[in-house]
Specification:
mainly alpha
Length: 171
């Protein structure tokens, strides 16, 4: 392994750059894909079971019906995914999309506390296959969204400082 590192000192950096964009676009694709699914009746019904049990969201069905809420959520997820995907061009949009994804996944994780049958009869920490394990993956998605916000903010900062360096070099 050390021979590989010695022969290619930039390998780690190249893999890290690849990983950066892979995480960024994987999160964007997941949000766009899952957002698009919210337009299907079966997905709206699946969301209904989680939302109805949630102390944070159960009130939304007093305002809109199940399908309308799913579509609104789907549109928001698609927009967040598109905003995240624009990180190389407009980092500020990626910050906003990532921030929405942070809120989205944080709320989704609260379903672990409010949804019946999340845990096996033996109780915590034994997650049920559905919906427990299904919801647990959002912990990683939340981490990725937080990373996108930080990485996009850092990209914005780098962009602000690059012209200064160019001017200093020219001056």
């Amino acid at each position: 392994m050390s021979n590989l590192v010695q022969r290619s000192p930039l390998a780690g950096e190249r893999i890290a750059v690849f990983g950066r964009y892979f995480v960024l676009y994987a999160l964007a694709v997941i949000l766009i894909w899952v957002g698009g699914l919210k337009f299907a009746a079966y997905e709206a019904m699946a969301v209904q079971g989680l939302v109805t049990e949630s102390p944070l969201l159960s009130w939304v069905y007093d305002i809109v019906d199940v399908r309308t809420f799913a579509r609104i959520l789907g549109i928001a997820e698609i927009l967040a995914g598109l905003a995240i995907a624009l990180r190389p061009v407009v980092p500020l949009l990626s910050v906003l999309g990532g921030a929405f994804a942070v809120v989205l996944f944080a709320v989704t994780l609260t379903f672990l506390l409010s949804t019946p049958m999340v845990y096996e009869p033996a109780g915590f920490p034994q997650l049920s296959p559905m919906p427990g394990q299904f919801l647990a993956k959002d912990l990683l998605l939340l981490a990725a969204a937080i990373w996108v916000v930080g990485d996009s903010l850092a990209a914005m900062s780098r962009r602000r400082h690059v012209p200064d360096r160019v001017e200093e070099a020219a001056g």
